[in-house]
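Retro notes (design track)

What went well: tokenization of the new backbones is finally stable.
What didn't: we kept losing track of which sequence belonged to which structure.
Fix going forward: every design gets posted as structure first, then sequence, in one message. First example under the new rule, 467 residues:
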């Protein structure tokens, strides 16, 4: 997570991005962030503009002026591989490799400080979440505004580690939020085990943190891994923590907004619908309640908004998955070069070096291995002359290099992504598909791509004056 703050030429030592304000400044300097100065409301207008900026400009966006509050809102800081490339200070095609390198570093224990800007303002009495936080109303069919960018910090008494995870929260009346604890995630178990003792789970939900803390929370780690120490590994520096006001927990000083409280045992209320990661609404079902005991924040906080189902959502889930899959596929064959799970993490595109005549069919071995991940519904394997980040290129390879009789493998009745609407019921299995769009080494010559001489090495800025 190292990135030179000054231009690389002048800086001697890379500086780590320690908070969201430096992160915003970084993206603004590289031309990857726009500002909206005009006043917007959070009831549809902000999400509509945010989604258009994501789709059309592919930039992050800072909303400086919101109706009825002095909070600002930022969105799409992590939308796309290019944003992670800026953060890591590497080219886009090395983002996964850098992620693998950083996440393999040694865990670093956090350090404690006595005060932090995230506690400049403290609300403890008669908390009305709707009055304090400008939570955007995302999608037309949503039941209420949802907080999607909050990272839940919980102490896991069984493993004696801190867990961090994103858990969506439906804004209810007063100090209550509905909270989604997806089955088999770590926090789901922490809550279930506390429920058996009829005890609440104390949590602190933090928003707008430094990138290392944020990315650590997006990563699925074994339950006994301490995710705050893992955040330290990603940053190469310890996370700085400050004590909460009303719960026995600590939060990163980089946060802009903190919600302290507890998840109640054995209380469930209908939650949802909410436009989900596959851009469908999902249903309504009973979910636990998060009762807020304090909200603390900076004097003029910047709140992060993550729209579900957008490139940002898929980047946060997809890139950690890419890291896991790439390491697995490279064990099948060192010819595997790179992988992309964007723009949708249900589809993996895998790039391989030319397959030698002695290993005909290897593209299929690689493709079906990728399908072993329960969330990868479709895997496409292409050669190194195909840009895996460019769907035009990927589908060119599919339509010109895959023999639809022999190179498409369908695997019915397998365990798939829970929210896949193709399933007739939540628990139904799915059919997944592998496409081998690599060139058969036996006929390689016919499939040489027609390109101008020197094409790969042209730098357009040497020929054009680009803004
Ligand atoms: C934007 C976003 C929203 C998410 N929403 C939820 C959620 O509502 N409930 C949930 O259980 N997991 C949700 N997740 C997934 C987990 O937070 C994430 O996979 C996390 O790493 C869980 O890790 P853990 O089980 O190791 O703690 C979300 C992830 C992202 C990136
Ligand atoms: Mn965990």
């Amino acid at each position: 997570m190292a990135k030179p703050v000054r231009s690389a030429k002048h800086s001697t030592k890379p500086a780590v991005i320690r908070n969201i304000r430096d992160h915003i400044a970084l993206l603004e300097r590289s031309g990857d962030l726009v500002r909206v100065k005009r006043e917007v409301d959070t009831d549809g207008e902000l999400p509509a503009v945010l989604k258009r900026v994501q789709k059309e400009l592919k930039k992050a966006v800072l909303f400086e002026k919101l109706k009825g509050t002095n909070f600002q809102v930022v969105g799409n800081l992590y939308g796309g591989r290019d944003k992670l490339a800026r953060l890591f200070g590497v080219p886009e095609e090395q983002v996964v490799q850098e992620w693998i390198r950083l996440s393999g570093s040694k865990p670093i224990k956090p350090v404690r400080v006595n005060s932090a800007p995230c506690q400049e303002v403290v609300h403890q009495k008669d908390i009305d979440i709707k009055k304090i936080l400008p939570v955007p109303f995302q999608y037309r069919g949503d039941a209420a505004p949802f907080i999607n960018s909050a990272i839940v910090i919980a102490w896991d008494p069984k493993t004696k580690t801190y867990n961090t995870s994103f858990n969506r929260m439906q804004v209810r009346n007063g100090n209550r939020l509905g909270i989604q604890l997806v089955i088999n995630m770590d926090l789901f178990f922490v809550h279930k085990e506390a429920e058996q003792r009829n005890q609440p789970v104390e949590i602190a939900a933090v928003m707008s943190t430094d990138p290392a803390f944020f990315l650590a929370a997006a990563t699925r780690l074994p339950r006994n891994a301490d995710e705050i120490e893992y955040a330290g590994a990603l940053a190469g520096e310890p996370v700085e923590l400050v004590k909460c006001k009303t719960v026995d927990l600590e939060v990163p000083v980089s946060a802009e907004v903190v919600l302290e409280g507890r998840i109640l045992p054995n209380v469930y209320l209908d939650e949802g619908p909410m436009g989900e990661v596959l851009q469908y609404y999902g249903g309504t079902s009973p979910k636990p309640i998060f009762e807020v005991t304090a909200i603390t924040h900076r004097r003029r906080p910047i709140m992060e908004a993550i729209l579900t189902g957008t490139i940002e959502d898929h980047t946060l889930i997809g890139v950690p998955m890419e890291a896991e899959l790439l390491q697995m596929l490279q064990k099948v064959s060192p010819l595997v070069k790179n992988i992309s799970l964007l723009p949708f993490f249900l589809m993996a595109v895998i790039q391989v070096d030319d397959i030698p005549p002695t290993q005909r069919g290897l593209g299929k071995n690689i493709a079906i291995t990728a399908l072993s991940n329960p969330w990868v519904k479709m895997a496409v394997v292409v050669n190194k002359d195909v840009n895996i980040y460019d769907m035009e290129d990927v589908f060119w390879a599919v339509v010109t290099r895959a023999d639809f009789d022999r190179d498409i493998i369908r695997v019915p009745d397998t365990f798939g992504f829970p929210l896949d609407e193709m399933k007739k019921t939540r628990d139904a299995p799915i059919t997944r598909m592998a496409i081998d769009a690599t060139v058969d080494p036996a006929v390689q010559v016919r499939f040489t791509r027609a390109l101008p001489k020197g094409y790969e090495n042209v730098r357009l800025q040497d020929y054009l004056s680009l803004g």
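Added context from the reviewer: DSSP finds eleven helices and 23 strands in the chain.
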